[in-house]
Write a sequence for this structure.
């Protein structure tokens, strides 16, 4: 299990204490808000730390953000790691470390090779040496911070069986027990993948990434609890249509929209009735929603 630096851990302790403090004090920590729109830190607080790293998880926690989003993929030797792109080149120094391995696909590298890479320097010199985390390491940090996770299966069509493997890893880490399941949502752009997760673990909350036609919503509702579209593709009418359909667990489908990084847009989409906003700047969005309420 990963141990956080003391300074970062302080943020987690403050966040936990807010759960047990009177409302006014909790508000001072940033944990309690007056609106009902969840703020989700996209790839962690990725405006302030390199995306999908433990540093980004900690940055979200230090801002008082409970929910983080990540992306899961698989290495050549079958290990689950957290990274958005299907290649390593944008967010690591793989081109320098392995110059002859283009196009640097994740699936062409072993975990041992990926662990040699620097996933932080591209973002800023203060993050030099930040590693690409395994899913296990990532879950440990989210657990340590008492945070919640919106987990995306990224390009699952490239990794046959990744749904079962991910669920197995989550179970091993304790994230499929009754207490943790309330802090977990699994989503994907791949409808078949979401359907597979629901079939394997119908007790786990799931989301489909995209903007299905209103006429198709009942089909998605058979295996999804959320419809999670880009904010550029929705309006109040669409959100209302989604929320009028009951999802896989018999409750109205939720809408978590992405990727909103400014206050006025956040207030606008919250006014459409979305349940959550996924953002690189979770503090900006949370504060804008608080001010608007």
């Amino acid at each position: 299990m990963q141990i956080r630096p003391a300074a970062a851990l302080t943020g987690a302790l403050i966040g936990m204490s807010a759960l047990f403090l009177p409302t006014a004090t909790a508000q001072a920590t940033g944990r309690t808000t007056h609106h009902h729109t969840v703020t989700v830190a996209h790839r962690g607080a990725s405006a302030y730390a390199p995306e999908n790293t433990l540093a980004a998880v900690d940055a979200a926690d230090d801002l008082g953000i409970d929910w983080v989003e990540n992306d899961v993929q698989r290495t050549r030797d079958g290990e689950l790691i957290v990274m958005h792109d299907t290649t390593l080149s944008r967010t690591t120094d793989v081109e320098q470390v392995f110059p002859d391995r283009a196009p640097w696909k994740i699936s062409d590298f072993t975990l041992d090779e990926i662990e040699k890479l620097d996933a932080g320097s591209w973002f800023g010199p203060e993050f030099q040496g930040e590693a690409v985390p395994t899913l296990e390491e990532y879950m440990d940090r989210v657990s340590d911070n008492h945070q919640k996770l919106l987990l995306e299966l990224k390009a699952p069509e490239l990794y046959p069986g990744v749904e079962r493997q991910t669920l197995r890893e989550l179970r091993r880490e304790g994230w499929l027990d009754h207490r943790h399941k309330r802090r977990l949502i699994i989503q994907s752009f791949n409808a078949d993948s979401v359907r597979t997760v629901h079939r394997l673990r119908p007790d786990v909350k799931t989301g489909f990434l995209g903007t299905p036609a209103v006429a198709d919503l009942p089909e998605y509702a058979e295996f999804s609890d959320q419809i999670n579209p880009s904010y550029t593709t929705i309006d109040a009418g669409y959100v209302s249509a989604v929320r009028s359909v009951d999802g896989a667990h018999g409750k109205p489908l939720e809408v978590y929209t992405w990727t909103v990084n400014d206050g006025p847009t956040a207030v606008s989409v919250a006014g459409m009735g979305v349940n959550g906003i996924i953002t690189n700047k979770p503090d900006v969005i949370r504060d804008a929603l608080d001010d608007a309420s």
In short: The beta strands are 38-41, 67-74, 80-82, 148-153, 184-188, 205-209, 226-228, 254-257, 276-279.
